[in-house]
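Fold it.
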Amino acid sequence: MSRIHRVSQALVTAAALAFCSLAGAATLSGSASYRERIALPPGAVFEATLEDVSRADAPSTVLGRAKIDPAGAPPFRFSIDYDEAAVVPGHRYTVRATVRHEGKLLFTTDRHYPVLDGKPATPLELLLRKVGGGAVPKPAAGIAGLPASFEGTLPCADCEGTRWHLDLLADQSYRLRIEYLGKADAKPFDQIGKWTYRGKPAVLRLNSGSSDVELFTLTADGALTKLDRQGKPIASTLNYTLKRLPAYTPFEPRLVLTGMYRYLADAGVIELCSTGQTLPVATEGDNAALERAYSAARREPGTAYLVSIEGRIAERAPMEGSGTRSTVVVDRFIELMPGRCAAAPDPAAPATLKDTYWKLELLGDTPVQVADKQREAHLVMHGEPSRVAGSGGCNRLMGGYVVKGNTLRFDKLASTMMACAGGMEQELRFMAALNKVTAWRIEGQQLSLLDADGKPLARLRAVALR
């Protein structure tokens, strides 16, 4: 082969990996791959799209797409045909790629790949990131046949009993609902988190991201028996067992959810802080408010932001394929915040006063309640500068603080002035207690705020954002 022929062939190959045009028709080519050493399930579909992402307040416009069905194995080599006349000078264009199986998103690009920007064309090489709904993890040893549901009525100190319903999923997430029987005004308590099953003897641990961890042992007949805080059997003749139901019977947990939200492939997804699951967000309820807040904050396509919503996890039909998949439904958008999901505190290590999320648990000797459609009361004492921020449940709290050794004083506390249907009396008591604080004490993950006589005014617990 002559040198001139080899050079010509190299130029043709490079042009094919970039883009070419002929009489208004153009092609953009490249490849995509992922780092995980896993095989895709049969029937997985790869798709790459060329999109105009110039408007931050509107969905992207697709100029062309390429699909590989079935996807096969990476790298996925694609060519997107598009109309060159549709390219507007000054607009921003990007290429995105996804891999789906029966409507579930397995892999996606999570960064901006700019094209058609006037710069010299280079071969496109896209990196796909794994998201929830990929290859199903193997269940932990000793717990077979997941997902599974467990139910039982456990003792209660001031009610007829507590009805527990626990769902264990194969991706090591769980959903828990506790109902207080005999209390007409008591609402069910829902919780989600991660579970582990390990140790000798093996213990099932339910961790919601706070220091309060529920412990169980697996019995020979497949039931779960509750253990005390030290992982020891509870010496009692009362029932502490959750029996496994004949079939998986999931419920829809309703609670405040915190996670990293982004808009990808014409759909919103959220990575939940408490479980690590990446779930699609349904286009119903208050989803429009969430999308508006995200569009206003977004600087680059696919950027993730920490959001807080009041919502539920429901089973919904996927955009493609059959069956259902877990989906977040936004009942009420709360806020979009800076930062990322906080790591769960280590229950074995004492928490620090500063830069810790402190959830209010007791005012004096009275347990606090989270009013309907409100945030939990909490405080964060930032180290630099010495500013305190938080919530009384209805209104935001802000101000300064001064700490010297074990003494603590809150300075110039203020709050917003919203009126809420419930919880206002508790919030006023919380503010009054903060104004009387003169000292503090930390034991493990528990913070006590004390008055001048050393009497506890409030008790708070260190938790992760959830």
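Confidence is low (pLDDT under 50) at residues 1-23, 133-140.
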